[in-house]
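Internal tracking record. Fields below are filled automatically when a chain is submitted to the structure queue. Please do not edit lines marked as system-generated. If the sequence contains nonstandard residues, flag them in the REMARKS field before resubmitting.
Queue: standard
Priority: normal
Entity type: single polypeptide chain
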Amino acid sequence: MWPATFVITTDTPDDRVAIYGLVSYGGLGHSVSGIGDINNDTYADVAIGTKEAKHVYIIFGSPDLKQYVNLNYLVDGNSGIDLYDSSLSGAYFGNRVRGAGDFNGDGYDDIIIGAMNYFATQRVYVLYGSAMLTAGIIDLASLSGSNGFKVNSLGNEDRLSYSISGGGDVNGDGCDDVVMCAQQVASKGRCDVIFGCPSVSSAFFDLNMIDGTNGFTIFGEQWDLLGGDADILDDINGDGIADLVLSGSCATVAGEDSVGRLYIIYGRETFSSPFELSSLNGTTGYRINGTDGLDYFGYSARSAGDGVFIMLCSHE
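SYSTEM-GENERATED OUTPUT FOLLOWS
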């Protein structure tokens, strides 16, 4: 039983684990996510992004997990993995990390990682889980399509990977899908859903090739900045297929600037691409508008399980 007030102290008792960064100003913990069991050892794992240090650390779950985890020891491949990309310079590798569910249908959970840059190429990675993830240090430049893949931004200032998510099957084909958003596309924002299973077989996936059979694209409305946040939800309308929530936290509503809006898109077996947000009619999904200007409603939107999702505003 947890107490009503949980106090984090400098000591580390048995009910928690402390993990410290390796370099000053490396930004360890800029993003953190449970990612399921990527090495299929029956214990859940966790991913920690660093942003400035440009590494992502995966800590393997274990009954023998120590109170302090020394990231230098991940090189043995037994306690976790250190991920980086030697081919990408300038981007904040690890600005976002999320679990991707079982994207390729092999029975192992996968991970999706973002590397955002404000003025150069941005990139998203999907690394497939495997019992063979024991290298300790893995250069994601080596992703070949068989062990995962990469997605490059279409423009240098798109901000691809501003939000990423996975772990739900929005088209009902039995494999989990992923979503990635580029908030600054044409002052509207753009989100792309890539369907799991056989849709990706090469080292790079080109977002221009999305055609409705392998995924679908959603463009925001003017000044929405669609994709400030995105998540694949549990089945909130009870049709047996996962659903999607997208944030347009800068949306104008009734003439008020930056009121904010959430878009709920119901999953279904077939999608056209691009998917038009104007088609949301209560049967295909719906919108939730904020109430006041500068609320930035929907600044954050996350699934809370059991058909529930959490919405936050940000008064800036």
